[in-house]
Amino acid sequence: EVQLAESGGGLVQAGGSLRLSCAASGFSFDDYDIEWFRQAPGKEREAVSSIRISDGTTWYVDSVKGRFTISRDNAKNTVYLQMNYLKPEDTALYYCNSEEFWGQGTQVTVST
Predict the structure, then answer these.
(1) Which candidate, 9, 83, 85, 98, has a CA 20 to 30 Å from the CA of 67?
(2) What is the DSSP string of 39-84?
């Protein structure tokens, strides 16, 4: 059974950092691209960052460029999202996605 499990969310003050993890089971990260999404209350889900598993090419939405870094550890079947200089507008439920598979999400709350 394919599963994606996010972790690492929490409550942090503005300017702080968190590192999210997305651990996969049931399939190998070596074969698929991984993407992080987020959804804030009352807003549509938006793509935040992605990493191409084949060559490591990364993409970021403009609002997080320079603050977030996506990385992977294929040996651990885990993708990370390092989030620095967090802002209140980063508050959302963060999900990882690969193909049709989604995790349950991890909540990130940034206080002023």
Answers:
(1) 98
(2) E-TTS--EEEEEE-TTT--EEE-GGGTTTEEEEEEGGGTEEEEEE-
Whether 99 contacts 9, CB under 8 Å? no
Structure token pair of residue 70: 């996506």
**Is residue 74 predicted with pLDDT exceeding 90?**
no
Residue 27: what pLDDT? 77
Burial 3-25 (b: 16+ CB within 10 A, else e): ebebebbeebeeeeebebbbbbe
Give the three-class secondary structure for 53: coil
Q: Mean pLDDT, to the nearest integer, of 49-71? A: 95
Question: Tell me, what amino acid is at 27?
Answer: F
